[in-house]
Design a protein that fits this description.
The chain is an alpha/beta fold and 182 residues long. The protein is built from 5 helices and 7 strands, in the order αβαβαβαβαβββ.
Length: 182
Amino acid sequence: MTKVSAGEKRGFRLKSVKSKHLRPLTNKVKDAIFNIIGDLSSYPVVLDLFAGTGSFGFEALSRGAKICYFVELNKRIFRILEENCKILGYTNNVKLFNADAFRIIAKTTKQFDIIFVAPPQFKGMAFRAMSEIFARPNIVKPSGLVIAQVDRREDLRISPTYFRLFDDRIYGDTRILFYERI
C-alpha cells in the first residue's frame, strides 16, 4: 500500500484498487524524485497527469506545494482519488478532473511549476504527452519542471526546444526523466 512519505501528512495510507490501468509509484521512487526536486516552496503549483490514486500529487502537497491539479480518466480510479483527497483533508487546495489528460494539456491556460506525467506503459502515451507539453511551453513556468515516469524500456527520445533534460534515473524497471523549462 502506498503512503505519504514526508511532510505534514507523513504516514497517511492512500486507498488504492487493483487495476491493470494503475502503475503505482513506489515509495522508494517517489522519495528519490522528491530528493531531486528539493524544496517545494519553489514549486507551489503542481499538475499530476494520469494521476491514478494521487500518490505523486498528495506527496507534493504534504511536502509544501500549495495546489495540485489531478487528472484521471478512469471513473473507478477517479472515485478512489476523490476518497484519498477527503481522507487527507485536501479539499481546498486540489482541483480534480475526471478527464482525458491530452484534452487538459491542449486546453489549459494555467501555468504549472511541476507537471508529473505517468501514463499507462507501452502505449505511446508518454511520448505523446511529453511532446504535447513541450509544444506548449507556456503551460510550464520558467524554471518549472516536467517529470516523466515510464518503463525503462520505453523510448522517449525527445529534444524539446524550451526544456533541458537535467536528470535521467532508473530504479528497477522504472525510469524517471526530469526536464526543466529554460
